[in-house]
């Protein structure tokens, strides 16, 4: 791939980019992992013996105000250690290909910061303009994944006390908001937290 592609997709540098194509509202990147050895998750022995291939599709941060979809060919490697309980394993790329994630970590971080500031429907309205998603569900899922703030929740609570005793997204949202805005009045909470 040429130098321009390397510059634009610098965040994908652990991967080898094979192709970049334009599809109307999105940019599709085809990439693969390098042929370097990876450690078996059970015994730790490194292996580069390919057992097969699979694909992962990940959303990356937007380019040219368009969505970026990265299709990565990943290897299933064979563990050569005699007696190891894991005969084959899928390679991991920490910091780029996290297990069960559909976004690159930097995309998840960007999405998280938008959702943290504009919870619920507000972020669902803004995200399409940032080429970062188009649905309330996207915003809700990102919100659920946000870690709760490490600071303790203030002991003096407002009219929404009852909600803090329930589980779920509303509670989490309110706790995050409480950390950010202090003790908010009921009208503000009602207008800012439109998840229910
Ligand atoms: Zn092993």
TrEMBL record:
InterPro entries from the entry?
Answer: Transpos_ISL3, Transposase_Znf
Residues annotated as domain Transposase IS204/IS1001/IS1096/IS1165 zinc-finger: 37-80
Q: Return any one Pfam family short name.
A: Zn_ribbon_ISL3
- Tell me what this protein is called: Transposase
Give the species: Streptomonospora salina
